[in-house]
Amino acid sequence: MNKPSAPAADRAGLAWDDYRFLLAVGRAGSLNGAAKRLAVSHPTVFRRINAIERALGVRLFERARDGYTPTPNGEEAIAAAAEIEARIAATERRLSGLDARPTGKVRLTTVEPLLYGVVPPLLARFRRAHPGIVLQVTADNHTQDLARHEADLALRPGGEPPEGLVGRKVARLASAVYRPRALRLPRGAGPQDLDGYDWLAPAGNLAHIAMAQWLRRMQYDRRTVFSANSLLALRDAAAAGMGLTVLPCYLGDAERGLVRVGAPVEAMGADLWLLNHPDLRRTERVRALADALREGLRELQPRLSGVPQAAGATP
User: Fold this and answer.
1) Dihedral angle sign, alpha carbons of residues 156, 162, 168, 174
2) Domain 175-265 falls in which CATH fold?
């Protein structure tokens, strides 16, 4: 009777794909987390890690209910995988940086709210000017790692660029308090006069943003009746009448079910940064998209700053 064929890892040394699985489990600390990073199923990661351990003849992870913890051998393998990944990413960046053709794929990562009426028209105009460039957009509140070449450009609110990246402020984002249209407030009530109302608050990976910090300083968070890690969810819940919330003006002003309460609150404002890796600054397709985004966002600055638009103005 013929024996079943062994996995590739059992027949030869580990391939780079095997190291990717080790690195993902090591970084995530769980099979589920690694599966999400790799865009594969939980059983696939489970089988792959077991096959790698059989091929090497050593245990690389200690299994527990709360996750996978690397053994000393596992830590060594993960460190080797991280080094390989860094070398591959550096090589890809250098090769991409030599490409002066305005063709190919450009990967942009940004936060989800900016994809609602702000960034897509700019990308459509860019595509008309550069039909040879293919765009891949990732909407994620977590920063894609530009150093590991997970993205070419990042458009994100926040502070100074992380070490190793270059960035430029491309806009100032204003934020304000919004009420459901059906909720009436006392005449002249402003953002400082809203104690005692129900509030909808940013939570999860949005708990650190300036809007969430302002709610805590004002102690409005004590009346939180709904929280979410999505500004779009907060917008829709407020428009449905659940309570007051805080939103970027470009998002709140565009929702007919909401009314802004007073002027934008300066303490909730944030700078919008366009980030990339220094190795890609000379890549023509990346440079072209960066220039287009800077120009387009400069045109949109009044709207992003919360300046009321005239009736019939193009959003």
Assistant:
1) positive
2) D-Maltodextrin-Binding Protein; domain 2 (3.40.190)
